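Entry 14. Ran structure prediction on the chain below.
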Amino acid sequence: MHCTGGRTARTLRTPADGLRYRRLGRSGTEQPRGGLGTGQNEASQRRDVGVDVTTYLAEADPRWAEHSGEEGHYEAPEWGPEDLERAAVFLTQLAPQARQVFEYLLRNPGRRIHCTELVDKVLGGPNGSDPARRVAGVLSGTSKGHGNSGRRYPFYWWEAPEGSAGATYAVRPSVAAVFLAAQLDE
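Output, structure tokens:
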């Protein structure tokens, strides 16, 4: 939800239907706002709406394969239900800030989250450094857990489109389920 003057603009994209809805005003009515197959890309939809559009990726969304990660995001197997113990160990091996960022991503499965949101909500706000570099640096604190896990990094990231700044991050819903279950067993 984003506040724009005295009115509230809400944009929601549900994982199930891939449609975006925009609700205006306090009692507003929902109106479909372009989704998959509309011919609009996310950047043009943001311009149309005038706010950032929250994007949720369903488990089978092809955009998971279009992420910007390199070796550690492709070579090993993806996390699965058989990896609960492995996930619990992974969590214990995270640097403190890396765990905070990762847990924020876990609480938002499938949602692409911009690095500035991670800085604002998890890392205590801007500190003069580039948010994209700051989040990337913090997430380097997952390397020990990743190296010992025998699995891919449990998060995905995408570089900003040309003309934009900052990366977005997300955790696949099935991977989030594994880690959330592992946290319950802690």
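The radius of gyration is 17 Å. Will compare against last week's run tomorrow.
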